[in-house]
Amino acid sequence: MVDLSKRSFFSRKQVDETNVRLPWIKSASEFTELCSRCGKCADNCETNIIIKGDGGFPTVDFSVDECTFCYQCAEVCPEPIFLAQSEQPWNAKAAINNQCLAQQNVECRSCGDMCETMAIKFKLEIGKVAQPNIELDECNGCGACVSVCPTSSINVSNLV
């Protein structure tokens, strides 16, 4: 077992609880305690976004694609670390930083075009191109907006 809090003592880095691991994880502590790092979740991910992260634990890489919430990662996992599919998959939300093309007054709506839940809306402003606004209540944290952003201005993280 790898205790990430103890690893941070030697690396002088804090464990970032805002990192998105996998959907439907019961708790971060239970995940690091029980995950055997077998890789079955990554092998069965339909969009191939599950990669080996810190300590070999699976994590999500939205720069590749989005999470379709197919639940295949949980179905193949031999460990009891996942919630039921009927539960909320995670408390992850997207955020747009100031490198966004629209904030630089360049027309771009790539993120909004990919947002299936239509959580990214564009607000018209005088003298500027329409500015993106994420309605957090509608964002499911799927990450569809991340890989299509030409300036890598969108990040999905857990709300803590």
Fold blueprint:
Elements: H1 4-11, H2 28-34, H3 40-44, E1 50-52, E2 58-60, H4 72-76, E3 92-96, H5 110-114, E4 120-123, E5 131-134, H6 144-148, E6 154-158
Antiparallel strand pairs: 1-2, 3-6, 4-5
What does this structure look like?
The relative contact order is 0.19. The chain has 160 residues and is of the alpha+beta class. Helix content is 22%, strand content 15%. It has two domains: 17-90, 2-Layer Sandwich (Alpha-Beta Plaits), CATH 3.30.70.20; 93-158, Alpha-Beta Plaits (2-Layer Sandwich). Strand 4 (120-123) and strand 5 (131-134) form a beta hairpin. It contains six helices and six strands; from the N terminus they run H-H-H-E-E-H-E-H-E-E-H-E. Mean pLDDT is 90; it is low at 11-15. The chain has helices spanning 4-11, 28-34, 40-44, 72-76, 110-114, 144-148; strands spanning 50-52, 58-60, 92-96, 120-123, 131-134, 154-158. The strands form three sheets. The protein has a two-stranded antiparallel ribbon. Strands 3-6 form a two-stranded antiparallel ribbon. Its main location: cytoplasm. Residues 26-55, 56-87, 130-159 form the 4Fe-4S ferredoxin-type domain. Keywords: 4Fe-4S, Cytoplasm, Iron, Iron-sulfur, Metal-binding, Repeat.
List keywords for this structure.
elongated, 160 residues, two-stranded antiparallel sheet, two-stranded antiparallel ribbon, 6 helices, 22% helix, alpha+beta, 2 domains, Alpha-Beta Plaits, 6 strands
Short description:
The protein is α+β, with helices and mostly antiparallel strands and 160 residues long.
